[in-house]
């Protein structure tokens, strides 16, 4: 009788130990991931989502985070600030994520950041380059350079490499990123000794840019700077060529999409843009990433995929060093970041922005061709 009792007791004990073991293993740390997989720039979100997934998959295979598996909860902000605010609130209040990696467009990160800041949920944007994003507060970081630098690189390239002495800008007046970037380009181009002969705004969602382009072309610029996202860039380029402009087009990271050439075709030839990453960079980090991404997704990564991967790794590394999911500890660990990621060496300045180099890419025969790397 006693023996039987002990046997039963042992069985109960071992079953509960196994159960406890299982539930330990299935404990998760939830991380929010945000990007626009629909809307005006859907290729941005697709690449971004893939970058997040690759990083999380690798970390989980290598044992997870603080003894837990990482659960990525991805949300589509649709490239719309109102939608971004909604998904930020959902991730924080309903899903109870410990941190948010996102989002792509500055205008959407600017809608999410105050919600992260107010709730003390650390956030890192992979690709939002407008300076105002990290100014929201000490819980907000980014994995990319900012637009004053990007605009400077574009202006110097136009002035020194393309020998332009006059330039015109066209931008989306309802978008913090495109408006800001045109302004930074303009200021630097003037500082270098150039002249801005036209500075033309268009409305968000516009598809006919002929009025602005007619004015621009009449002013005979040596170069047109287009600080829009790829869909608008392709349309503006087509209409500029139709109106007879044959000169160079220059722009920023918003050009980076396989759809730029698909939509723009020949019109985007003689185009150049500043970016965060080139798949042709021979650095071992870049080549290793390109290989892993191609193996998983069957296509070459763009800058959005690389920076999404980097931003996720920066956040996971910070949580690991924090040794805890306490928001204040994660924030402090993020601020102390010092790691090599795909797009470079990351450490943050006092405004939580990393100092990074830019690459210049040319569109030649429908391909993105790496030109040069520009250091800050
Ligand atoms: N920098 C853009 C923004 O702030 C987003 C972007 C980054 C788009 C990289 C394409 C590539 O809105």
Task: Draw up the topology in text.
Elements: H1 2-25, E1 28-35, H2 42-61, E2 69-76, H3 81-94, E3 99-101, H4 106-119, E4 123-125, H5 132-135, E5 140-142, H6 147-161, E6 166-172, H7 176-191, E7 195-202, H8 210-218, E8 223-226, H9 230-242, E9 249-251, H10 258-264, E10 271-275, H11 284-297, H12 303-322, H13 327-335, E11 339-341, E12 344-346, E13 358-364, E14 367-374
Parallel strand pairs: 1-2, 1-3, 3-4, 4-5, 6-7, 6-8, 8-9, 9-10
Antiparallel strand pairs: 10-13, 11-12, 13-14
The structure holds phenylalanine (PHE).
Question: How does this structure look, described?
Answer:
The protein is an alpha/beta fold. It folds into 2 domains: 28-145 and 282-356, Response regulator (Rossmann fold), CATH 3.40.50; 148-275, Rossmann fold (3-Layer(aba) Sandwich). Helices cover 48% and strands 19% of the residues. The chain contains 13 helices and 14 strands. The strands form 3 sheets. It has a 7-stranded mixed beta sheet, with helices on both faces. The longest helix is centred in the first third of the chain and has 24 residues, at 2-25. Phenylalanine (PHE) binds at residues 44, 104-106, 127-130, 177, 253-254, 256, 303-304.
């Amino acid at each position: 009788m006693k023996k039987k009792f002990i046997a039963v007791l042992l069985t109960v004990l071992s079953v509960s130990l196994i159960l406890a073991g299982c539930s330990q293993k299935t404990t998760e740390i939830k991380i929010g991931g945000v990007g626009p997989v629909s809307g005006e720039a859907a290729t941005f979100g697709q690449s971004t989502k893939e970058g997040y997934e690759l990083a999380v998959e690798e970390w989980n295979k290598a044992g997870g985070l603080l003894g837990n598996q990482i659960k990525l909860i991805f949300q589509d902000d649709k490239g719309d600030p109102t939608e971004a605010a909604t998904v930020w609130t959902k991730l924080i209040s309903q899903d109870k994520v410990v941190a948010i990696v996102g989002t792509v467009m500055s205008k959407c990160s600017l809608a999410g950041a105050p919600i992260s800041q107010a709730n003390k949920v650390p956030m890192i944007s992979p690709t939002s380059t407008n300076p105002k994003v990290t100014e929201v507060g000490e819980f907000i970081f980014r994995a990319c350079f900012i637009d004053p630098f990007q605009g400077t690189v574009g202006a110097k390239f136009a002035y020194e490499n393309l020998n332009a002495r006059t330039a015109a800008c066209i931008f989306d007046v309802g978008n913090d990123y495109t408006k800001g970037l045109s302004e930074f380009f303009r200021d630097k181009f003037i500082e270098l000794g150039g002249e801005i002969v036209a500075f033309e705004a268009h409305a968000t969602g516009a598809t006919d840019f002929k009025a602005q382009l007619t004015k621009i072309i009449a002013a005979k610029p040596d170069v047109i700077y287009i600080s829009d996202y790829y869909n608008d860039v392709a349309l503006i380029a087509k209409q500029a060529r139709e109106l007879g402009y044959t000169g160079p087009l220059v722009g920023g990271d918003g050009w980076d999409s396989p759809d730029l050439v698909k939509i723009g075709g020949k019109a985007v030839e003689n185009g150049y843009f500043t970016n965060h990453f080139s798949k042709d960079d021979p650095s071992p980090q870049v080549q290793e990433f390109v290989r892993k991404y191609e193996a998983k997704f069957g296509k070459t990564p763009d800058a959005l995929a690389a920076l999404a991967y980097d931003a996720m790794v920066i956040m996971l590394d910070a949580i690991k060093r924090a040794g805890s999911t306490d928001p204040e500890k994660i924030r402090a660990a993020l601020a102390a970041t010092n790691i090599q990621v795909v797009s470079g060496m990351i450490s943050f300045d006092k405004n939580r922005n990393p100092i990074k180099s830019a690459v210049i890419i040319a569109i030649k025969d429908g391909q993105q061709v790496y030109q040069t790397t520009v250091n800050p």
